[in-house]
Amino acid sequence: MTVSDCPKLIYVAVRHPRYRHDTFIGRWRQHAALGMRQARWRNVARYLHCDRVEGLAPSVPTMDCDGVAVVVYRSESARQAHIADESARRTMKQDELDTFAQPVADTALLLIENVERPAPLDGFRLFVFWPTGSTNRLFARHGDLLQHASVGWTRNEAVERPGAWECPRVDELTSATIEPLCALAMDVAQHARNDTAVGREQPRMVLTRTVVLHDVP
Q1: Which structural domains are found in the chain, ordered by start?
Q2: How many of the other CB atoms lie within 10 Å of CB of 42?
Q3: Which candidate, 33, 54, 87, 169, has a CA 20 to 30 Å from the CA of 43?
Q4: pLDDT tens digits for 169-208?
Q5: What is the C-alpha to C-alpha distance for residues 159 and 112, in angstroms, rounded to an integer?
């Protein structure tokens, strides 16, 4: 396992009502391009757009969204410098109003990533958003499932919730093909349903295809 000291922001992208899913993806890329043109972008090491795709079984609890973005900062000081650029913040927040159904901060999590099994950045990516109260016992079983799957696995622990969203942990499972992720999603959902410690709320999942927009050493 490799624990990164680079802060990582994940946000769930929900389209503005004026867009369909297909037209939103293009608008989201425009929003990304605007962000990458800002001077403060030098603080970012990696930026991924993960576009939602179909494929999960109806029995798998899913999150209603159009995609998930991943932003990795070069360091904590770089993240603070990024935030401190008020001009860029105003520009991006204004553009958010035309792009998303709600401010990015409302669907964002600041995390520290633990790479359990490295994998290429591109390909398919399954996000598992765990509810508050999920247990390490369930998480350990989830890990056991992955011992027999040819997938990458990154475990993300939340350190800050900019908005009101309560989500202590996010798993990212990656694969060159969609089938292993669909099978794992069904297994995780079944284990969660059988674990009384989780209670009524189940982990929510999003199946995506990853687009690497920015990746530097």
Answers
A1: 2-215 (3.30.70.100)
A2: 12
A3: 169
A4: 999 999 999 999 999 999 888 888 776 555 567 899 999 9
A5: 7
